[in-house]
Amino acid sequence: MHVQPLRLYVFLVSASLAVPFSPSSVAGATVSYSGQQVVEVRARTAEELELIHSLNLDIWSCFEPGIGTFEVRVTPEQLTQLGDRGIPFQVVIADVQALVDSERESMVRAEQSANGDWFQSYKQYSEINDRLDYFVQTYPDLTQTATIGQSLEGRHIRMIRVTGPDAEGNPRDGRPAFVIDGTQHAREWISPMTVMFAADRLLSQYDADPRTRAILDAVDFYFIPATNPDGYDFTWTSDRFWRKNRRINDSPNCPGVDLNRNWNVGWGGNGSSDDPCSEVYHGPSAWSEPEIVAVRDFTQSLSARLGAYIDFHSFGDLVLSPWMYTLNPPPDADRLNNFGMLMSNAIFSVHGVRYQSGQGSHILYIAAGTAHDWAYGELGAPAWGIELRGGGGGFVLDPAQIIPTGEENLEAILQLCENLLLGS
Questions:
Q1: Who has the most CB within 10 Å: 11, 98, 170, 314?
Q2: What amino acid positions are annotated as catalytic residues?
């Protein structure tokens, strides 16, 4: 989800593009978004807020918790419903299908102009797995990979461990562990790319950069780039803006569970829904989804030395500290928020992009059953959710933004290691 100061923008696409779209080179969603728009609506009362939620609109952003301003993706019929109920709106993205078409075309151009950098364009699930295999083959002394679980549809949920070799008095298994995951929400394509970027640059810079080497020799990283492989694959083949996993619910026309509402801390509370048709459907019970059970069990196996946990999402330019599920502060709110601000400042230092930091339920919205609330609340690890860059296209971020997004968040990771895990 995304938060930023109130504004109005309309996405325009040129009718003439230098590079024609080639379906064979970039996978394309089959769902048509023809006639759909993203509009900004304001809930002025609790009744209007309840009405907006009752329509099960696809909420792209929320400017403040509770009563406030939302960006929602709507069909023409849903837009009529809003108008009939007297809820004011402004157009934010005039043509969602044009946005998707433009993304595909930009990816073709990025691939055709690529200079060999894997991060020039977004990658499908199979390509991410191939890249993990490449890491292990290229850096055998620094990596290990494993499948930590299976998705509902049988896809592998993979982890790669990145750390320096064992050394006398400094064994790998004695180092503080740092778990970094992404892609609980399938449509957030910048999320797996940022996780992969961090792993890639740590590995490629180990021999060249003394700072990277010192951190890798002291910290044991575990990267899980694709927590929701079924949903992610579905965004490439069928529905670009699919959010949830692919659970077949009792309501077969409303599949999927929001994985980042299925963790047990605060499960079932405000900011989630018991309606399978909702984008924030929390599932029939906490831990009902095998994808997050896999991440839970793996992370718990490291709990004796778990030093930090980050869960990457998009979009919004935010560093979110616990809690998400309540407005009450956590026991060590100042410490968590201080390290959140440290990461925000680190991000800003790279490309001048400011990520707002603070308690998630205060600066974004209340959301019950989230990953970083669980890592903090159950395991006691300092944990954050980071909402990555957005743009005029919301979840559709130009491929040219992949590398700068990765660079600024890698700096946040490095500074968190130096100041929290290593205490320098």
A1: 314
A2: 387
